[in-house]
């Protein structure tokens, strides 16, 4: 896989990017392992980046197929405001109409999420009031270890430098060893870690969420 091309996101990529994001959302495996509604998950995970800040997204293509993406945000505070006031209310309504909140696994998941109060109400609040950036990255299984990830990151960092963003953050499940090695190889350091709970197969899974941070040096 030597012919991987990195380019800025285009509107035509939206459907493919949403699918790819859900294919890798559970530490590189499909979202259905942890959440039953793919469309709603795609809304939650990608809409801010594709519809409100699409210039900070880059994609990796191979033979005309999308094999990777990096969703960037250059202002965490703006992200927090858009998510809280626009996207969460509309997604809550959509989930309600689709009956997602009447499903046992969703209710279990919400109960699990509420146990993560410290991260949500302390760290996220702090993070959302910063004007630094963050990112999410995903590569298809077949295209991993072919440098698509590092090329996408390089494109995003160049863009962040142009805008004068000083730091980029990425949250990683501590069981996601590939992602941890990836971010460390690219100069990120773990700044904070938070105990978290998620529901997998009806059971609580305890893990640490690692906040990886890279300082961006201006040109
Ligand atoms: C993490 C991920 C983005 C890495 O992308 P990638 O294109 O495979 O990574 P690259 O080929 O650019 O690798 C760059 C370096 O990262 C490290 N690395 C990447 N994958 C690794 C793995 N599975 N194990 C150990 N080190 C790894 C290596 O140091 C590698 O350099 P090398 O190949 O010269 O040894 C990819 O595995 C992925 O999409 N995972 C699923 C989604 C995910 O977990 N996203 C992160 C959460 S935001």
Point out poorly predicted stretches. none
Helix content: 40-55%
Number of domains: 1
Estimate the strand proportion.
25-35%
**What small molecules does this complex bind?**
coenzyme A
Tell me the name of the CATH class. Answer: Alpha Beta
Q: What best-fitting shape do the alpha-carbon axes yield?
A: globular
**Rounded Rg:** 17 Å
First and last CA, distance: 31 Å
Write out the strand line-up for the largest beta sheet, numbering strands in chain order.
Answer: 1-2-3-4-5-7-6
CATH topology: Aminopeptidase
Succession of helices and strands: EHHEEHHHEHEHEE
CATH architecture: 3-Layer(aba) Sandwich
Please describe the biggest sheet, giving its number of strands, its sense, and whether it closes into a barrel.
7 strands, mixed
Number of strands: 7
The computed structural class is alpha+beta
Instruction: Specify the CATH homologous superfamily.
Output: Gcn5-related N-acetyltransferase (GNAT)
On the 0 to 100 scale, the average pLDDT is 92
Q: Please work out how many helical segments DSSP would assign.
A: 7
């Amino acid at each position: 896989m030597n012919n991987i091309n990195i380019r800025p996101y285009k509107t035509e990529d939206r459907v493919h990017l949403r699918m790819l994001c859900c294919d890798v959302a559970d530490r590189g495996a499909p979202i259905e392992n942890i959440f039953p509604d793919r469309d709603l998950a795609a809304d939650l995970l990608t809409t801010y980046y594709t519809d409100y800040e699409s210039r900070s997204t880059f994609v990796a293509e191979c033979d005309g197929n999308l094999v990777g993406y990096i969703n960037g945000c250059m202002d965490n505070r703006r992200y927090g405001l858009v998510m809280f006031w626009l996207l969460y209310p509309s997604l809550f309504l959509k989930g309600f109409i689709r009956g997602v909140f009447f499903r046992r696994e969703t209710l279990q998941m919400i109960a699990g999420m509420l146990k993560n109060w410290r991260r949500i109400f302390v760290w996220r609040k702090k993070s959302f009031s910063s004007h630094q950036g963050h990112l999410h990255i995903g590569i298809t299984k077949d295209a991993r270890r072919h440098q698509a990830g590092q090329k996408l990151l390089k494109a995003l960092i160049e863009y962040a430098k142009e805008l004068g963003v000083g730091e980029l953050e990425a949250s990683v499940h501590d069981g996601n060893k590939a992602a941890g090695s990836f971010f460390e190889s690219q100069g990120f350091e773990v700044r904070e870690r938070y105990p978290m709970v998620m529901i997998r197969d009806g059971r609580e899974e305890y893990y640490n969420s690692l906040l990886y941070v890279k300082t961006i040096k201006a040109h």
